[in-house]
Amino acid sequence: MIFENTFKKFLEVKEFFKNLVGDNKVVEDLFKILEKPQREIKVYLPLKRENGEIEIFEGYRIQHNNFLGPYKGGIRYFPEVSEDEIKTLAFLMTVKCALVNLPLGGAKGGIKVDPKNLSEKELENLSREYVRKIYDFIGPDKDIPAPDVNTNAKIMDWMADEYLKISNSKDIKLKATFTGKSIENNGSEGREEATGKGGEIILERFVEKIGLKKPLTVAIQGFGNVGYNLAKFLYRKNYKLIALSDSKGGIYSEEGFNPELVMECKKERGVIAGCYCVGSVCDIRLGKDISNEELLELDVDILVPAALENVINEKNAEKIKAKIILEMANNPLTEEADEILNKKGVIIIPDILANSGGVTVSYFEILQNLNNEKWSKEKVFEELEKYLSKAFDEVWEIKEKLNVDLRKASFIVALRRIYQRYMLI
What we know:
Blueprint: H1 2-11, H2 14-21, H3 24-34, E1 39-48, E2 54-65, E3 71-77, H4 83-99, E4 106-111, H5 120-134, E5 143-147, H6 153-167, H7 194-210, E6 217-221, H8 225-236, E7 240-246, E8 249-252, H9 259-269, E9 277-278, E10 281-282, E11 288-290, H10 292-296, E12 302-305, E13 324-326, H11 335-344, E14 347-349, H12 351-354, H13 357-370, H14 377-402, H15 406-422
Parallel strand pairs: 3-4, 3-5, 6-7, 6-12, 12-13, 13-14
Antiparallel strand pairs: 1-2, 2-4, 7-8, 8-11, 9-10
Helix pairs in contact: 1-4, 2-3, 4-15, 5-6, 7-8, 7-13, 7-14, 13-14, 14-15
């Protein structure tokens, strides 16, 4: 159902695209092809627990499309991982890579597991078993996984190490099979911050394009890697972060929070609640607790869903007061919410554009591994700005030319690249 709803949004651009390229038959054929993944891999992963019991976990790797290059996409560890969800995210990766003009296709993977219930050794064994099961289908010229929900550089290091063991090789180029590795293991500078940095670049271009004046008020739902890094970069650019939240709840202050101090407080307390850090101090009198639901409905200039899918839906879309939504999570809006908010005049900066910084820096990591190079963080961010600014300009040009919203314009820019490649096959 998630995939069906996402693909429906994509189908909305079909007629626009036909008019743009003037080739109805090929466009119809291309949409048929993109509606199905090229390969779906389902694996069962036996894990011997520390109590001696064997437990079997379900895993997936769905390879959506590789017209533009090797499949690319993260691996998530989550109890609710499903084939439908992974298929949807693989499709979005195909579109995202095309949009940013990366020579990569789209894939996604996942294991149905709550990693909090595993010891570190069990987590490592499960990660290595997953690599053993999908080994034949991945590689620098086949499919390149990366971190996603509940996976990180340590897990990518284990996976890359297992891949090299099976390959019986120490060739650094094979490390390009996985991105998001630790810096010590040939990962890229700036990778941890890349998605947040990308969100800042895209938002800054948008704010500049329509001439908004700062300070602009921002509420961010999700204070993990993506939400925190975005908050950090926006704070430095004079945005006022009046609300932040994690899975346990949120905090609010009209004065605006200092996200770096909030993160220090969260690490001490374990939750964001009570971390009222404004300016250079944290004080209980400087703010108040709010729920995640309340955060979404605040009257702010910019709302950023940076955690879970479908948090804005038909039940709460009418209550949304934000003027702009920056989608940093994948699929944070349902199809119904998208329609309601567009009718209300809310500007939505879509996920495939807003959160494309992560996969772009992953591509830089691949290049560094294949060429045995090491880029500085400054170079990584400079290159990131070039790629994302170019993508934004192309999206804006299509938006203006065809009088469509930013999501449709993003789909059309991505489709144009896939179409051009398809015509050469």
